[in-house]
Fold this protein.
Amino acid sequence: MLKHDARKLVQDRATTRYPKSVVTVLGKIIDLTHVGDWREDHIEQFFSTPTTVSKLEFLTNLEWHTVSRALKILLRDGVIKAHPQVKDSFGLNPETLQSFASKFLTLRSRSLDRKVLKAVRMKFTRNPNREAQQYDIHPVGCPCVCVPYFCSQPSTI
């Protein structure tokens, strides 16, 4: 995977699983990873430049304990791997990131849910001769102007 694709993957997938501080540290590790040719070289073959926790603290504008905790979390989950010979150098494992849920897919499914609910509401408002049934909901004192047997407020559905 190319470096810029890995950066996009972190912004999409890591935000669904980790807090913002962990995502920030992971993004900085990717930024510190130097590849030979950014058009062809894959990031999983390279490691970041050796950077201490205090330097990462300065670069990410986070506290020392937050950075060290984020590194422990990322190492434990296998998102990054430590260099076997160089201390404080990390490599990215994109396969682990790809297994996380996508932020945009979640947003898209919520949008689809809203569209389906809107279609159901429209079906009930288009058929004024329909008789009220047991599952129809219309709260007393509802501020909306809707058909008596079906409330169009999203909070009631």
